[in-house]
């Protein structure tokens, strides 16, 4: 509709030099680019940028936006100056301009024709607090002066809102609908499967919530190849922004050349998500905190072991929309340990008594290990010990005990508390230490163990193995574990480099 690509790179910076630098980065990937003139610090900076823009040859279709504050933008000047900037932008090579309804409605059409007649007009309306009540009436209002296209962007607070917006917009001529908010991220990507789907992807600075960066939209999601045939998977959790499962599972689908996409769903209301599985065509999903236990009541069938563990981290959507739950954390633990410790007949200590500890305890008990639990809440630890016929070890007695392996199943040591360890060096009387935490790769606990010459296993191993088991459940194909590990390690290394650079 606007330019050749459905993915529109967004260039937004406060000075002309940064705008140009971002524009050059955008041009490497995108053929449709929005220039957010309103992000520039003042009128002089806008004029400077547009003068430099006019000197360049353009490789992409450019869309100029100088949105006023009243419409959610940053431009503080008058309407007259806004129109002059847009006119300059058209002269500098922008084929399109975005005019918010707040300006379009009060400007005489003749004035807009004289100043901006050479450009193509996108009239936009933004709703930052929630969905507009009457979409058809709103669209008619936007179309009143016959623009070339209209855009409705609205904050969506549920997946149901996202579907309402999508249903209205998709298939409607010259209409762009954009769901905003963190819940909307999957809907933004999935809209690209529609003929008039359109997604804004910032080069550096997000200009609305729920946007996915240009780098990630191509790099992680390969969203440019999403079609109606693409199989949809995802992970549900709250929060979900830091999950590395999208990197891992999308890399797996790419490696096996499967037309599928894996998306992060921020789920506050589980019923809303479950109600969206069929309309969105979701074929399977991973489950993370805080939904691993709560999801069980929505399942049609649950793997007996997952039921005994009391936690489900994988759901397959089978024929007729039936939900079948599994626990692959359990498989992840065994895969991480089996080549390093002979579990049968070994004595293993688990530190912590939450959901991960339960999965670890069942896995180890099933493999024939004698399971010991140590946790700050005796009651929870006792419940796990009872379930796997294990025993409790009091925290204060750890130094007098020996274990073949110690497993940390608490979040102590996880970013941003990476300088903490659940145990001290003298507590580590064992041959191997396994930390279920994978961020950072080398936790304080693993560093202490290494210093004592004890073999260590990072949570990355479990994370990759539980993800590989999910892939196999959903696709019936062997998982490309090597590529999945690479994707996770690359993402973790990138994060570490960014943290160091700060
Ligand atoms: P959870 O259900 O919240 O349980 C956490 C456990 O740690 C609870 O027993 C909690 O005790 C205990 N704990 C928390 N802070 C503590 C502290 N300061 N000192 C002592 N104990 C403390 O969480 P979860 O789902 O089991 O997850 C635990 C860890 O497993 C996380 O770090 C997660 O990254 C990791 N995990 C890794 C993978 C993987 O694939 N690598 C998969 C799943 C989980 P209270 O009950 O007293 O609060």
Notable features of this structure?
single chain; 502 residues; alpha/beta; Rossmann fold; 3 domains; eight-stranded parallel beta sheet; six-stranded mixed beta sheet; binds NADP nicotinamide-adenine-dinucleotide phosphate
Descriptive report:
The strands form three sheets. This protein has an eight-stranded parallel β-sheet with strand order 7-6-5-4-3-2-1-8. Strands 10-9-11-13-14-12 form a six-stranded mixed β-sheet, sandwiched between helices. Strands 17-16-15-18-19-20 form a six-stranded parallel β-sheet, sandwiched between helices. It folds into three domains: 7-213, Aldolase class I (TIM Barrel), CATH 3.20.20.70; 229-327, Rossmann fold, CATH 3.40.50.10860; 332-463, NAD(P)-binding Rossmann-like Domain (Rossmann fold). Helix content is 37%, strand content 20%. It has 18 helices and 20 strands. The chain has 502 residues and is of the alpha/beta class. The radius of gyration is 27 Å and the shape is elongated. NADP nicotinamide-adenine-dinucleotide phosphate (NAP) binds at residues 289, 329, 332, 352-357, 375-377, 380, 409-412, 414, 422, 436-438, 459, 462-463, 466.
């Amino acid at each position: 509709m606007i330019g050749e690509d459905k993915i529109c790179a967004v260039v937004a910076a406060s000075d002309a030099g940064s705008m140009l630098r971002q524009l050059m980065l955008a041009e490497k990937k995108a053929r449709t680019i929005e220039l957010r003139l309103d992000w520039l610090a003042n009128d002089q900076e806008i004029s400077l940028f547009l003068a430099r823009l006019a000197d360049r040859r353009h490789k992409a279709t450019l869309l100029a936006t100088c949105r006023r504050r009243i419409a959610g933008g940053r431009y503080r000047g008058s309407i007259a100056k806004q129109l002059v900037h847009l006119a300059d932008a058209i002269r500098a090579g922008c084929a399109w301009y975005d005019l918010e309804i707040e300006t379009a409605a009060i400007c005489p059409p003749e004035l807009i024709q004289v100043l901006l007649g050479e450009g193509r007009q996108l009239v936009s309306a933004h709703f930052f607090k929630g969905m507009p009540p009457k979409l058809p009436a709103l669209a008619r209002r936007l179309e009143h002066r016959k623009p070339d296209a209209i855009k409705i962007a609205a904050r969506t607070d549920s997946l149901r809102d996202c579907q309402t917006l999508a249903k209205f917009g998709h298939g409607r001529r010259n209409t762009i609908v954009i769901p905003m908010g963190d819940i909307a991220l999957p809907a933004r990507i999935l809209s690209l499967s529609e003929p008039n789907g359109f997604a804004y992807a910032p080069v550096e600075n997000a200009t609305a919530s729920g946007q996915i960066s240009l780098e990630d939209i191509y790099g992680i999601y390969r969203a440019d190849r999403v079609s109606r045939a693409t199989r949809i998977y995802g992970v549900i959790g709250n929060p979900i922004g830091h999950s590395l499962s999208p990197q891992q599972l999308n890399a797996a689908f790419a490696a096996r050349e499967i037309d599928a996409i894996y998306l992060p769903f921020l789920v506050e209301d589980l019923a809303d998500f479950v109600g969206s599985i069929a309309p969105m065509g979701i074929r399977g999903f991973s489950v993370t905190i805080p939904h691993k236990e709560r999801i069980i009541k929505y399942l049609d069938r649950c793997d007996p072991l997952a039921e005994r563990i009391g936690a489900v981290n994988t759901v397959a959507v089978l024929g007729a929309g039936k939900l079948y739950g599994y626990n692959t954390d359990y498989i992840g633990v065994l895969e991480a340990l089996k080549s390093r410790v002979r579990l049968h007949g070994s004595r293993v200590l688990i530190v912590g008594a939450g959901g991960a500890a339960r999965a670890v305890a069942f896995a180890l008990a099933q493999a024939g290990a004698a399971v010991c639990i140590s946790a700050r809440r005796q009651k929870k630890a006792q419940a796990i010990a009872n379930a796997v016929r294990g025993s409790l070890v009091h925290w204060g007695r750890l130094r007098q005990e020996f274990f073949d392996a110690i497993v940390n199943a608490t979040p102590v040591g996880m970013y941003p508390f990476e300088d903490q360890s659940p145990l001290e060096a003298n507590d580590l009387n064992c041959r191997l230490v396994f930390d279920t935490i994978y961020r950072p790769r080398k936790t304080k606990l693993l560093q202490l163990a290494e210093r004592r010459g004890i073999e260590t296993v990072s949570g990355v191993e479990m994370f990759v193995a539980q993800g590989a088991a999910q892939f196999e459940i959903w696709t019936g194909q062997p998982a490309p574990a090597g590529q999945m590990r690479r994707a996770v390690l690359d993402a973790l290394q990138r994060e570490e480099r960014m943290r160091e650079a700060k």
